[in-house]
Design brief:
five-stranded antiparallel β-sheet, mainly beta, 1 helix
Length: 177
Amino acid sequence: MTAYPAFAAGQSLTAGALSLAALIGQTVFRATRGAGQTITSGTEDVANAIQWDTVDLDLLGGWTPASQTRWTVPFAGWWRLDGSVSFVGVTSPATPGTLRDALWYCNGATIAAGRARSFSGTIGTSPMTVEARSIPYLLNAGDYVQLIPLQNASISVNTGTGTYAPHMTVTYAGPPA
């Protein structure tokens, strides 16, 4: 059962409407960051947006290497965003910071409720993965979303690789109304 009606009362069933209905619940974008990316210490910043270097799925053509931090919405609708960022362990300085976070941005600004839970407290020297909130979000054609990491180790920290690689997926959840 879908969370959104596929068709409005009285709507004509066209090939386009049927195609969109079939798309509900489908993952349309999946990307990972295979190589470590340096994340500067401080406040959240689009300059630190994850640069996707491996795109496994881009069903609707929303990603381009020219803007590798962005997935651009091809048409208005509800979209579910899922993602995580990993950070390598910090062994120097002796105090590796107290914050690791990941959150969603839309068109260069934070998304309301787009932050899951920052990890705040004693950070160990082991790699750590933090999730951005899995959130359905109403987006318009041309909007773009980015996954933004945040850390405060007072030095730059790389993202993890391999099984710790950051990832992002976008799923079409339904029409805007």
